[in-house]
C-alpha cells in the first residue's frame, strides 16, 4: 500500500498569525524558512527533516508540520 511509504514532513505557515519575528528562520537547522515581506516564507520545504523545532518555537503558533 502507498501509505507504507515514508511520509515527507514540511511546515505550513499561517500568514494571518505570523508576526515576522524571525524565530523560525533562526531555529530551523535546515534553512527551510526565509523572511519575506515581514512574513515567514517556506522557501525550501523539501529540506525539512520534521524536527518540529520551528513549531514549538513560534510564539504565535503559526506553524504546523504536515506530512504527506
Ligand atoms: S516564528 Fe512564527 S511568528 Fe515568527 S516568523 Fe516564524 S512563523 Fe512568523
Ligand atoms: S520541522 Fe525542523 S527542519 Fe522542518 S522547517 Fe521546522 S525547524 Fe526546519
Explain the overall architecture:
With 68 residues, this protein is of the alpha+beta class. It has a single domain, classed as Alpha-Beta Plaits (2-Layer Sandwich), CATH 3.30.70.20. A hairpin with a 2-residue loop joins β2 and β3. It is globular. One iron/sulfur cluster (SF4) binds next to α2. The site of one iron/sulfur cluster (SF4) has 14 residues, from α2.
Distance between the termini: 14 Å
Class by SSE composition: alpha+beta
Sheet of most strands: 2 strands, antiparallel
Radius of gyration: 12 Å
List the strand order in the largest sheet: 1-4
According to CATH, the fold-level topology is Alpha-Beta Plaits
How many helices? The count is 2
Which architecture per CATH? 2-Layer Sandwich
Q: Uncertain runs with pLDDT below 50, 5 residues or more?
A: none
Summarize the amount of helix as a percent range.
10-25%
Task: Write the topology of this structure.
Elements (H helix, E strand, L loop, with lengths): L8 E5 L9 H5 L5 E4 L2 E4 L10 H5 L5 E5 L1
Antiparallel strand pairs: 1-4, 2-3
The site of one iron/sulfur cluster has 14 residues, from helix 1.
Brief description of this entry?
This protein has 68 residues and is of the alpha+beta class. The chain has 2 helices and 4 strands; from the N terminus they run E-H-E-E-H-E.
Which keywords apply here?
15% helix, two-stranded antiparallel sheet, single chain, 68 residues, alpha+beta, globular, two-stranded antiparallel ribbon
